[in-house]
Design a protein that fits this description.
By secondary structure, this protein is an alpha/beta fold. The chain is built from 14 helices and 15 strands. It has 2 domains: about 130 residues, Aspartate Aminotransferase, domain 1, CATH 3.90.1150; about 220 residues, 3-Layer(aba) Sandwich (Aspartate Aminotransferase, domain 2), CATH 3.40.640.10. The protein starts with 16 loop residues before the first helix and ends with a helix.
């Protein structure tokens, strides 16, 4: 079956954060929103049909997650990521951020040091700081238009007594898909210094050839019990509003402790539609996903090619995610001036690079999970505004 990703679906007046907050965030209605990380594509027909069927049933009482759903998740991980897991290792959660918060409360104490790799997804900062943990940063190193891990600094930070490390793989916003060699080095160092890993792998399915997502928990059998893996179909199939995710915890004692925290905080359920969508997506969504990845690669290629001859902007080729990291530092604008330029002159709404940490100053993030015509429009607006500055 062939799926279309060119239909422009009107999302205004649906309480869509991306579209209904345009004026609030950017001060004008004519800004093209290419920021928050959801897609402007319709979900796979199999998911839509399953949700319609469930809605027509008309009763939405307490809904369970069962062994059949566990098998569906297990099958997906085996088929897409060569990861064989035990069904009893699966827990369900309203979202990856919820799981990270529960893990932070379960396995660390106030004042404990927690490592993140910057620039990184803004909620990572909140998870650490709002739980009164001590934030420790391992800044990613930019080498010839390619982000790398500074392993000397990584080990230096771990030596300070870090208790937990929040890993982002694939990395948001820089788009790296960490290699087996890189993952092995990080896992080995965490094992050496007795550091737990909370691995956010929400973009695992959105990886472009020849890159391959490798679940962190698979690189060292001895370390599996100290790795909490957070995954979800929500980025993959545009289900963010349905709040359905899962977590893999192979150590029985740690899984029990985490389950207790979920119950303590009343976050131990996912909603009826979330269960339905998760099941349908992982059961019948593989062909749709394969075609989505082709479309996303086309969109990314357009952006890369449009800017490749320019000396005033550097654009990073993402290995995974549908997010593109832009380097505007050569414009020599401060961050407020850069935001004004993009919002008021280019009329494009991107994610502020500074929200990913001070290492993001001079950068912006673009979401290209939308019809190619929209990507072309957003790209043209930026280039036109850059030309007008000359």
């Amino acid at each position: 079956m062939t799926f279309s990703f060119e239909n422009k679906i009107e999302r205004r007046n649906t309480r869509a954060a991306k579209w209904d907050l345009i004026k609030t965030l950017y001060g004008a209605d004519d800004v093209l929103p290419m920021w928050v990380a959801d897609m402007d594509f319709e979900v796979p027909p199999a998911v839509k049909d399953a949700l319609v069927k469930r809605a027509q049933h008309g009763v939405f009482g307490y809904t369970i997650t069962d062994s059949a759903l566990d098998q569906t998740v297990s099958n997906w991980l085996a088929e897409r990521h060569d990861w064989q897991i035990k069904k009893q290792d699966i827990m369900y959660s309203p979202g990856v951020i919820t799981t990270l918060q529960m893990a932070m409360q379960t396995f660390t104490e106030k004042g404990d040091k927690v490592l993140i790799q910057t620039p990184v997804y803004p909620p990572f900062y909140d998870i650490v700081e709002k739980h009164e943990r001590t934030l420790v940063k391992n800044q990613l190193r930019l080498n010839n238009q390619h982000y790398e891990i500074d392993f000397d600094d990584f080990e230096k930070q771990l030596k300070q007594g870090v208790k937990a490390f929040i890993l982002c793989n694939p990395h948001n916003p820089v788009g790296r898909v960490w290699t087996k060699e890189e993952l092995t080095k990080m896992v080995n160092l965490c094992k050496q210094y007795h550091v737990m890993i909370f691995s956010d792998e929400i973009h695992a399915d959105l990886v472009f050839s020849p890159n391959k997502h490798i679940p962190t928990a698979t690189v060292d059998n001895d370390m599996q019990g100290n790795i909490i893996t957070c995954m979800s179909p929500t980025k993959t199939f545009n289900l963010a509003g349905l709040q359905a995710s899962f977590v893999i915890v192979s150590d029985k004692q740690k899984r029990t402790e985490l389950e207790k925290m979920f119950h303590k905080q009343g976050a131990n359920h996912i909603n009826t539609m979330g269960v339905t969508a998760l099941d349908a997506a992982y059961t019948n969504g593989s062909e749709w996903l394969d075609q989505l990845l082709v479309q996303l690669q086309t969109n990314i290629d357009h952006v890369i090619e449009a800017f490749q001859e320019r000396s005033d902007v550097n654009v990073f080729q993402p290995e995974g995610t549908y997010l593109i990291w832009f380097d505007f530092r050569s414009l020599q604008l401060d961050q407020d001036q850069l935001k004004d330029f993009l919002q008021k002159e280019a009329k494009v709404g991107l994610n502020d690079g500074a929200s990913f940490g001070e290492e993001g100053n001079g950068f912006m993030r673009m979401n290209v999970a939308c019809p190619l015509s929209v990507v072309q429009e957003g790209t043209s607006r930026i280039i036109y505004a850059l030309e007008a500055r000359k």
